[in-house]
Records
---
Amino acid sequence: AQSVTQLGSHVSVSEGALVLLRCNYSSSVPPYLFWYVQYPNQGLQLLLKYTSAATLVKGINGFEAEFKKSETSFHLTKPSAHMSDAAEYFCAVSGGGGSRLTFGEGTQLTVNP
Amino acid sequence: NAGVTQTPKFQVLKTGQSMTLQCAQDMNHNSMYWYRQDPGMGLRLIYYSASEGTTDKGEVPNGYNVSRLNKREFSLRLESAAPSQTSVYFCASSKALWDRAVTQYFGPGTRLLVL
């Protein structure tokens, strides 16, 4: 079985500030981890994924995430927030069920000018 | 290349009415999925189809049925809608269910309101 917990349902940052969105996972098998972004009134699109190669994963739009097995974490970061980053972000894990995903609750990111 | 398309975009139903949500993908993917999204709960898997001709229950299948019409199309049916089924429904597809590393591609969603 697998699960994902996203700490903080709402995160607010200033434009240009560091973005840090937290994700912790639980999995009975070595996990594959994903971050998806959902812009208002749209579907989800993939930001990045960890599939057991490099532990530091770079994605689109300047985002990256680091897989830390000892901490069971896969936090998403971006050095400098842009107004266009305002969206909802979902962490997800695929475990023993093939590519079926278990999603976290989501984190709404607000970027203030 | 439209990716994953869903119809309708928005629907209002009365309790007890039925409806079918349609989903189609043009990426030649084998596997397709239906999720519902509710505030504070992320996305939850309703049903999935590993390949044409097969369907399986996900985390929250009660009150729903699905049909994998062909490789492209995967529909979700609500036989007797209830207010608890008010949600945003997303269809997704991927190359293969067995590959844990594969990316799922999502449609734009259907907003359903059951009164």
Note: The mean pLDDT of chain A is 93.
---
Amino acid sequence: AQSVAQPEDQVNVAEGNPLTVKCTYSVSGNPYLFWYVQYPNRGLQFLLKYITGDNLVKGSYGFEAEFNKSQTSFHLKKPSALVSDSALYFCAVTPSNKIIFGKGTRLHILP
Amino acid sequence: NAGVTQTPKFRVLKTGQSMTLLCAQDMNHEYMYWYRQDPGMGLRLIHYSVGEGTTAKGEVPDGYNVSRLKKQNFLLGLESAAPSQTSVYFCASSSTLPHRGDRGQNEQFFGPGTRLTVL
């Protein structure tokens, strides 16, 4: 079955430290990959996407993600976390004819 | 631009009642979607539309109906609400389908959500 996994329900990081939110997927073909962020009581906002080309994708708010085809991963990263980065993060992947969202990872940045 | 808007923001229904959720977008997007978000389950697609006058079933369509009479609006209806439909509902739109990144901007723009409780 085609799927996307976010193995951590919650990630805690101290402010100023680097952060990583993990995403792995299992789909056939060459999918597109997305990260979205959801702040409290808000809808999802697009952060970044991988379509093709450079495996390191840069997005909004200083976030970046690295596409690793051999490990079927698309981890979200940021060199220095801010308290304002605290939110719910969703990875999404497109199999041939639809989009599948992960269950989300709650990121807590500790002051 | 307002982007994607949803009305109402909150609603409480009794089992068996009906209601319609309205989604509007001002980005001239062709594609629109209705999702539900439940704790620990991420987003699940209810119905979507690939253009004015079209609708299609998503992952969890049972108990819901939709209509897209105008390009900018996408309505989600619950004919006879059930407690299992208690959820947060999100509308989204995009200029092309997410899996057609070769055809342009395929990221989705989401509305602020509607929190529905069915008693």
Note: Chain A touches chain B at residues 9, 31-32, 34, 36, 41-46, 49, 51, 90, 92, 94-99, 101-104 (CB under 8 Å).
